[in-house]
Amino acid sequence: MFFIFSKTISFIVKPLGFLFLMILLQLYIKNHTKRKRLTVFILVYLYIFSCPVITNVFMSNLEVPNLDITKVNNYQIGVVLSGGFVNESKSTNQNLYLGNQADRIWQAAELYKLGKIKQILITGGDGFNKKDAEYIYENDKGKDFLIKCGVSPEDIIQEKESVNTYENALFSSKIIKNKTEKVLVITSGFHLKRALACFRKQNIICDGYPTSPISKNSKVKWIDFFPTLNSFHDMDFLVNEYIGILVYKIFGYI
Q1: Which domain holds residue 124?
Q2: What is the pLDDT of residues 75-105, one digit of tens each?
Q3: Which of 65, 112, 152, 221, by CA, is between 20 and 30 Å from 122?
Q4: Residues 35 and 130 in one domain
């Protein structure tokens, strides 16, 4: 129930969902002046949420900065959170296609190969297709990818019941036997703060390793003030994460 509720609320308040509702509202407004004002509001809103400069400022404040992989400490377990590192709709039993968050699983493999982590725990199931026997699970394909990268199957642990970040931490805590040993949480930089808060709430001692960087450190150029679809997409990630942090605080998950 929480999974469906959170996804519904998330769509309504995220940039695309809110814009959709505003356009619907515009269709029902009869007063010409009010419709004109709403049109101006929609245009300003659309610009703010698609301007690279504005997006980068907000994302930089949320995203955890990258780390030098060679300077990362050694850990027994690296916990990689699923959620977009495999394209489940295209992958089959024979084919493996990576998703837009593939850097999560790739960085986990890199950390393993460098000896920074000895085991990899993949956490995450699927909230919509949880009972579909024929469904290709991201968790399983993530394991396949790690094996292709040279990770020993014996060093891969799977947790396939969780459907959100809170459950990632909750169910992982039941698998991690040594609660006094620090683990490394691996997920996207914009998502890492909430993930660490959830794991620490479950009394797991942990550090974070950010992946999938979005924000840029380059100097602002004039073209960065022009709206782009990529920026609108990035802002969707950002708003979704702020919503997640707020909801998790309300429910006491962090």
Answers
A1: 69-211
A2: 999 999 998 898 877 777 778 888 889 999 9
A3: 65
A4: no
